TrEMBL record:
Protein name per its UniProtKB record: Energy transducer TonB
InterPro entries: Beta-lactam_resp_regulator, Peptidase_M56, TonB_C
Pfam families, alphabetized: Peptidase_M56, TonB_C
Key words of the record: Membrane, Transmembrane, Transmembrane helix
Transmembrane segments: 6-22, 34-51, 90-108, 249-270
Domain TonB C-terminal: start-end pairs: 411-507
Organism: Sphingobacterium arenae
Length: 519
């Protein structure tokens, strides 16, 4: 819907510029090109809102582990499978029905045009269409009329008209296409008149003579009819426009840029990319430097670099590291009070290690002094972290930077949640009974981004979980998770709340939680 609105507003803006600025000019070919370009740009530029402009970028956080947790619920009103039709379904039906009628009407008019070529005695009527010309028998000035119609054929004017007619069928609700057709026909006639009017007075008299009694046909190009007669004669005798006036066609650029801006504003991939990044930062339970405001994370008094050097030098490895461990990493989070006191040490990652590894790290961290986090210059309570990784010789890797990127669906998580809500096939029986309940499903995003191991953990009615599986699988693969440059697998759990007030199924796609699968 947004696409059609932007496209048709653009058409109107371009046409207003044409009428007020460009139509009086004698650059007929330029005007023809302007009108056709206006239509193409109006329908091409709004497509920017559908292009996926998000990019899968690795987020580098020194020694930080970022858990992916979705904190936003999406409410979707879902059509119950059955005979229920929403208002939007009826709008689509009416739209498609009228499009069908418009295309049928176009086909009927094309048939009538070709039928006219079979009758060579059509009074004083002279016209061309595509590569065919009809000139009435015994007509005067036959050579001038033939030359005029040949201009239409050589320059493909009929294809311009057909192009606009087809678009008009799909945009039948906007009367602007009637005016575009009329002005294109006018420019076509001016182009042909300019070439064929060696004697302008005699040519104008010929136009008047042939215009009487000739009916107007939008598809075909008639040598003369009353519709454009006065305007054509005025343009015939009008002085040529100065070349400097061609700069006025630059007015097309600001309109195109404005439409582009609005199209990008409605591009969900950009919005979702920003929203997802903000959500990730907000949902981290470690303190980071805030994007906005004066916020400082907690850190050792001598700086993190000096602290980690001291930590590496003094850490006593309790035992040899298992050489088969693909990710010998330990991450510890803890509270840092506004007075700099440390407490509540928690093993964030590294559960495969003996508890002695954790205790040794806590012993060293407890000996260090930390500066508290600050917000707008005031000390606050926060969470600190320390993480380190061992090499194959059981030594801590100095200056190791942890890179942990969670999987992401194409178009972003907001778009994925909307998709699940839209395509979840609400159980009809459950809706008829006006039931309510929660579906909880789990799935794995593999190393290649494939979706597998779909499981139903909870369902209020048999088959409700399977319907969630179908929607998740229908969306397709995700961008895989990355850990230290290597693809990793993630397991997700998704709860979906179902309710059916007034027998209308409502689907609420809830919190999405994740955990990385360790090898």
């Amino acid at each position: 819907m947004t696409y059609l609105i932007l496209a048709n507003i653009s058409l109107i803006l371009f046409f207003v510029i044409y009428v007020l600025v460009l139509k009086p000019l004698t650059f007929f070919q330029w005007n023809r090109g302007y009108l056709l370009s206006s239509i193409v740009i109006s329908f091409a530029v709004p497509l920017l809102q559908f292009i996926d402009l998000s990019q899968h970028k690795e987020v580098y956080q020194p020694l930080a582990i970022i858990d992916f947790v979705e904190m936003e619920s999406v409410h979707m009103t879902q059509t119950v499978s059955g005979n229920y039709w929403s208002a939007m379904d009826w709008v689509r039906l009416v739209y498609l029905a009228v499009v069908g009628l418009m295309l049928f009407w176009l086909g009927l008019r094309l048939y009538r045009v070709f039928k006219n070529f079979e009758d060579t005695g059509t009074g004083q009527r002279n016209f061309s269409f595509l590569n065919r010309v009809l000139i009435a028998e015994g007509i005067h000035h036959r050579d001038v009329i033939a030359a005029h119609e040949q201009i239409h054929i050589k320059q493909g004017h009929s294809y311009d008209i057909l192009f606009v007619e087809v678009l008009r069928a799909f945009n039948w609700f906007n009367p602007i296409f009637y005016f575009y057709l009329k002005e294109l026909k006018f420019q076509h006639e001016c182009i042909a008149d300019k070439v064929c009017s060696e004697d302008k007075v005699q040519y104008a008299e010929l136009l008047v003579a042939h215009a009487l009694g000739v009916s107007h046909n939008v598809l075909a190009h008639e040598f003369s009819n009353q519709s454009f007669l006065k305007q054509r004669i005025m343009m015939l005798f009008k002085n040529k426009s100065k070349k400097i006036n061609r700069t006025k066609y630059i007015l097309m650029i600001p309109v195109a840029l404005s439409v582009s801006t609005f199209a990008l504003a409605f591009n969900s991939s950009i919005k979702d990319a920003v929203d997802n990044q903000v959500q990730r930062l907000e949902n981290m339970d470690i303190s980071l430097i805030a994007v906005q405001g004066k916020r400082v994370r907690p850190e050792p008094e001598d700086g993190r670099e000096m602290f980690m050097k001291w930590f590496v030098d003094n850490y006593k490895v309790p035992e040899t590291i298992d050489p088969t461990d693909n990710d010998p990493f330990i991450g510890i989070v803890f509270n840092v009070s506004k007075t700099g006191d440390l407490s509540d040490f928690t093993l964030r990652e590294g559960t495969q290690f003996n508890k002695a590894f954790f205790d040794e790290a806590v012993r060293l961290i407890s000996q260090s002094k930390w500066k508290p986090a600050e917000r707008d210059g005031a000390a606050i309570d926060s969470r600190g972290w320390v993480g380190f990784k061992f090499d194959s010789s059981s030594k801590i890797i100095e200056n190791h930077t942890r890179v942990d990127v969670a999987p992401e669906p194409k178009g972003g998580l907001n778009e994925w949640r909307r998709y699940i809500g839209k395509w979840y096939n609400f159980p009809k029986k459950f809706a008829d009974e006006k039931g309510s309940g929660e579906v909880v499903v789990s799935f794995v995003v593999g190393k290649s981004g494939e979706i597998r191991d779909l499981k139903t953990l909870k369902e209020p009615v048999t088959g409700a979980g399977k319907r969630a599986h179908d929607a998740i699988a229908k969306f397709g693969a995700w961008k895989p998770g990355i850990l230290d440059g290597q693809a990793v697998e993630y397991r997700y759990e998704l709860p979906i709340k179902l309710s059916a007030p007034n027998a209308l199924g409502v689907t609420e796609v809830g919190y999405l939680s994740s955990s990385r699968i360790k090898e």
